[in-house]
Amino acid sequence: MSQRRHRTVVLPIATCCLALAAVCAVPARAAAPVQTPQALKEQLPMIGIDQHLGALLPLDATFRDEQGASVRLGQFFGGKKPVLLMLAYFECPGLCNAALNGLLRGMHGLAFSAGQEFDVVVISFDPREGAHLAATKKRRYVEQYDRPGAEQSWHFLTGDAEAIRLVTEAVGFRYRWDERTAQFAHASGMFVATPEGRLARYFYGVEYSPRDMRLALVEAADGRIGSPVDQVLLLCYHYDPLTGRYGVVIHRVLQGAGVLTLALLGGCIAFSLRRERRRARRSYQAKTEGATSGISATSAAAAHANPLGEEA
């Protein structure tokens, strides 16, 4: 019985050992060649957004509006209003819709209104899309925005491959068609352009802070929109191209706090000096009035003692 148990235990162990020895005896396969960083970079999708701050948009590029009419990009520039620009194809199943919805939320959070302080231009980068899709998108977002003037100031454009290339290259928008998913691989963002058509600010992702949008519009318009408060805020907030956001400039805040502190100290000192002068003036007046009263009392007493003015 003990021999059977011994065999029952030993045989599986021996089998495992033989199998392990066989595996170890097989020559190791050649390791896969390590890819260089350059090779990895070449295999990555060439998508992203490169900042071209100050670059001029191709204002002569021709597109089609929501009615299919031919329009120049420059028609939406040249006035006094800055422009919010977005590149998004209209049949995108996900990211473009998220970016457009984020743009809508940011615009809802603004006290500024499209058509009054700024305009909006959305350009499809899919040359296969036409005016019907643009009109459908415009109707949806204008209705949700629900502010007067949006119909005339929020534009959805389509165009051919060459016009799209001119705009995407000017903006620094890199994308490609993915055969596997039958979609465009692309990044998302929103751009602020000056009234003259120069790129002023870049915002990344699908959510855009109304505060940052307002400051960017005020800067792009060169102070022609907004209030004095916006100009003060721009002294304390600075656009960071790396993050695409406005952040507090510490040294400017400290300078402002220092100036405010000096002003308060100067006011306190002036108030104290003024109060001391008032006290000194009151004290002097009281002493003068007391001395005058004493002289008058002495004269009255003398007159009472010698009413006829006779000499003693």
What structural class results from the helix and strand content? alpha+beta
Q: What number is the mean pLDDT?
A: 79
Number of E-type strands: 13
Biggest β-sheet strands, sense, barrel: 5 strands, mixed
Q: Helices and strands, in N-to-C order?
A: HHEEEEHEHHEHEEEEEHHEEH
Number of helical stretches of at least 4 residues: 9
Taken from the alpha-carbon principal axes, the silhouette is: elongated
Rg measurement, Å: 40 Å
Helix content bin: 40-55%
**In CATH, what is the class of the domain at 48-223?**
Alpha Beta
The strand line-up of the biggest sheet is: 6-5-4-10-11
Could you please describe the fold and organization of this structure?
- The structure is a single chain.
- The protein has helices at 2-25, 37-43, 95-108, 131-145, 150-153, 161-171, 210-220, 228-236, 250-305; strands at 48-49, 62-64, 70-72, 83-87, 119-123, 154-157, 173-174, 176-178, 183-185, 189-193, 199-204, 237-240, 245-248.
- By secondary structure, the chain is an alpha+beta fold.
- The chain has a domain at 48-223: Glutaredoxin (3-Layer(aba) Sandwich).
SSE topology:
Layout: H1 2-25, H2 37-43, E1 48-49, E2 62-64, E3 70-72, E4 83-87, H3 95-108, E5 119-123, H4 131-145, H5 150-153, E6 154-157, H6 161-171, E7 173-174, E8 176-178, E9 183-185, E10 189-193, E11 199-204, H7 210-220, H8 228-236, E12 237-240, E13 245-248, H9 250-305
Parallel strand pairs: 4-5, 5-6
Antiparallel strand pairs: 1-7, 2-3, 4-10, 8-9, 10-11, 12-13
Helix pairs in contact: 7-8
